[in-house]
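== Protein entry: sequence and backbone fold ==
=== Local backbone shapes as whole numbers ===
==== Amino acids and backbone structure tokens ====
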Amino acid sequence: MATVLVTYDLCAPGRNYAPLHNYLKQYTHCKGLESVWVLDTLKSPGTIRDELKALIDKNDKVFVVRITREWASYNYSCGDWLNKPERSF
């Protein structure tokens, strides 16, 4: 497994983004900020991006990146989750 960070800006107020959130919830994940998810997955960032594109509008923005061992946070609830020994980077 790899650890991937997904962040987005959803630009259509009032739109039902439940399919997007349900997609992200299918992974072992941590959601510590409003539009930031950290996922455990075997999929590449490009594959996740492509799958998310089918669930959002053309004016929405998505950024997906694989997380390495080197990261830092402050008051971020996913920090403990990321520090678990079984986490792969």
The mean pLDDT is 91. The domain at 2-82 is CATH 3.30.70.240 (Alpha-Beta Plaits). The longest strand covers residues 2-9. The CA atoms of residues 69 and 85 lie 11 Å apart.
